[in-house]
User: Fold this.
Amino acid sequence: MRTRRVFIALQLLLALLAFSGCSSWKALNAPPAQYLAKRPGALLRLNTRQETWLKLHNARVSGDSLIGEVWERGSGTAAFPLDSVMYIEASQLSTGKTVGLMLLGGVVVGTIVFLSALSSTLGD
Assistant:
């Protein structure tokens, strides 16, 4: 019975890891308007000329401004002239890292379940 509870808990942990995935920040390889046209609602991280780092959710370009919801709690919507933004990065899921993490998690779960079952068998 204990082995089954451990197995279920480890499955839930593995599922959590799978849904979170591995993501990283990558510099935009296209102008912001072009990038956001293909990926509406993207999460962007930008650096302004005042050396302020911000994360914008649901970012969009309107005229010569980048507009989005500031990721910080309670900060609301903000607009930045594109010429005041020095650097823009987008959050992107890394499929290779996510698959690797899943495989590693599977090996860990399998090892723990095996050792738990072995311990139960030897303890009886």
Q: What stands out?
A: Residues 95-123 form the longest helix (29 residues). The radius of gyration is 22 Å. The first strand starts at residue 23 and ends at 27.
